[in-house]
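Hey,

Quick one before I head out. I ran the complex with glutamine overnight. Inputs first:
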Amino acid sequence: MLDLQSLLNDISQTLSNQTDRGKVADYIPELAKQDNQHFGMAIATIDGQLFSTGDAFEPFSIQSISKVFTLTMALGKIGDKLWERVGREPSGTAFNSIVQLEQERGVPRNPFINAGAIVVSDVVLADHQPKETIGEIVRFIRCLADDDSIMIDEDVAQSEGDTGFRNAALANYMRAFGNLHHPVEETLDVYFHQCAIAMTCVQLARSGLYLANGGMNPLTASKVVPRHRVRRINAIMMTCGHYDGSGEFAFCVGLPGKSGVGGGILVIVPDKAAIAVWSPGLDPNGNSKLGTMALEMLVAKTGWNVFGA
Ligand code: GLN
């Protein structure tokens, strides 16, 4: 029998000795304040068990992990029409790169690089006021996690708004190609707020369960998305969820995952569980350094992977 709790304790213990813990994101001033000594991890299983270790109950900025949830919402709103405005190929470039956008005429490579996620936010905005849409996103995530305490960290949202010049450049560029349908400030308002949602590892693992359970949220017994859509969202997480480190993550971990520059990673184990890990120090691709190491240790012991090996 797999003793997941002992396994998490061992991982936490092993990583506590790690001196090279990566570098916290400093291009968003509010995130630069984070302490890279944090480490937390949680596993939620589809049959209702929960295992956690370290700082698993401490909220952190989910950042780009929010893009999984807004992608789910956008597909719910406009279905496959989304793929006319954003691709589904790995980009092979940094998450905030602008170079491909010109060549590809304002259509971003995938929904997880910043440009693609901004298009997705524009779709979710759907002619509403940003405030309403931001509320809709938070309510959706609260339903997924079955937890009404999930909030936006307004200081992080403000900090991103004040310094998000690159994202503003991407948004303006896409607007010039007609691929944003709302004023740039409104779409970015939604994007910055979704990135500033704060969640704990426990909340995040619970919120990912619908993707491990064929589209059905086991916490509330409600259907979130059809099964075929789960397959697609998980595929994009696997191929694009770690930006230019996605190949490496698939190679080393072998499960669909999405990282954020707050140091969180959400991982889906189809038909079994959702895992969230948080450690704010990042590798050069902007993915949590200890988070990735922890996941490698976990899959080595559990044998969890999507390749049947
Ligand atoms: N809010 C961050 C940004 O736009 C998200 C990036 C990330 O988490 N990779 O730069």
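The chain has two domains: 4-60+199-302, 64-195.

Talk tomorrow,
K.
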